[in-house]
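Running this now, will post back.
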Amino acid sequence: MARDSKRNGNFIVQGSLLGMAGIVTRIIGMIYRIPVTNIIGDKGNGYYASAYYIYNIMLLISSYSLPLAISKVVSARLSKKQYRNANKVLKGGILFAIASGGTVGLIVLFGADILANALAEPLSAIALRIFAPTLLVVAVMGVFRGYFQGMGNMVPTAVSQIIEQIINAIVSIVAAKALFDYGSKTAALLRNEDLAYAYGAAGSTFGTSIGAFVALVFLVLLYIMVAGRLRKRFLEDDTRYTESYGDVFRLILLTVFPVILSTAIYNINDIMDNFIFNHSMEAKGLGAEKTAIWGIYTGKAKLLLNVPIALANSMSASTVPALASCIASDNKKGARRRISVAMRYTMIIAFPCAVGLFVLAEPIVDLLFSGDPTIGTAMIRAGAVTVITYSMSTLSNGMLQGIGRMNLPVKNAVISLVIHIAVLILLMDRTDLGIYAVIISTIVFSLCMCFLNNLSLKHSLGHRQEKVGTFLIPAISSAVMGVVIFVIQKILSLFAGSLLQVVIPVVVAVIVYMVCIIRLGAVREEEMYDMPMGARLVRLIKRIGFV
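Update: finished.
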């Protein structure tokens, strides 16, 4: 029991570390997109978003699920002390990544015009071509990340993510400015002002490529540093059967394919939304406004809403190898315990983030972005609930994959996608909601995924999520917090600028929320020790007198 508790704590700590890194990278991404947006404008953001959606779909096809697949396969082998086979998975994964990433990269490079025209944004092809080589780099990088994650070590992934984003931020700003200036000169010669925004968008994609390459170099160097220690483990390996590369490719494909399908359906929402929105707006005679509106949606609203969802993505990455290890050793009770803890921990953070973004949307947008904050504020408030629903559905997706029910997320995602598209088409056709039709249909999709995934977990593993500590107490605590910071923000708005309207309420929010969840018993003292710096947190709250 103590051993399982230790593993459970390690899994939470590792997931938390990766979650913190994910949030840090999202914050860096949000910060650097501010000057980039100011350089290339909402229209440039629209071109960037169209190119990025296509790139993201191609990334899903080639390598997005590789870290998860490699970590799952490696973890299962390490749980049986099959060290040679685990290393064979790494080598086979690299070969797989080169083949898949290279092939898809060439398709994007030479088919950029066709792909961009399909979204009714032909000028986004300039940015899309710059994304092409990144597909190969990210594929190989994903294998190394998955290998370290399968070993139960999320630190290499976390550090490489931060390095990648820092380089991305610096290069993106510099390149966006340089190419926007170049595009302005070209636009003047060709009398097409949109070229300046298109080239500016292309410049902002340079950072993604260079950042990924630097992160890959870091991971390779790290692997070389630990390779000697890993080779010593081979001496402890008495496994008689050594898997061939054919076996490895088959295992990767069997793991990757359903993950690709479920994740692709998750992310195809963006490209389908963009496609339906663009064509619907053009049909209504609003084609001139569509790119800028979409730029505000992706470059401001979604950018902010996605920051807290990073924790769910990271907790999912940590959960998969932990659950795979439990299933490999037939420890269903341990698997259920890990699912419960991960879901509760994620919801405890998702609820206050959603409420905080809803209440403080206006001063946040006004602080971070130039121009009128009204539209961006309305979009964030309309979509704030997706912080909760996407966090839950993303995490439950990883849980189902971790227990080996790879087909269920695919099935659930297909059902949700069909409902999502039907709602979006109906709203775009019958109403004048415009971009808010996209937000509403996105909420519908994530709600469907939450319901279906949790139903699947119940049927597959007999899991029943505890409700009070996971949902009710965080909801009540967040509501109390929301009322308090709403009043504070309104008072501050009478005499203070946006910076104080954000900073002071956020500090108060953290204190109020922590008091509420601790007093109401959402987090027990023994569970706090499983969190990063948990012992210090316990000593602090005891000193203050919270418990």
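The mean pLDDT is 81. More later if anyone needs it.
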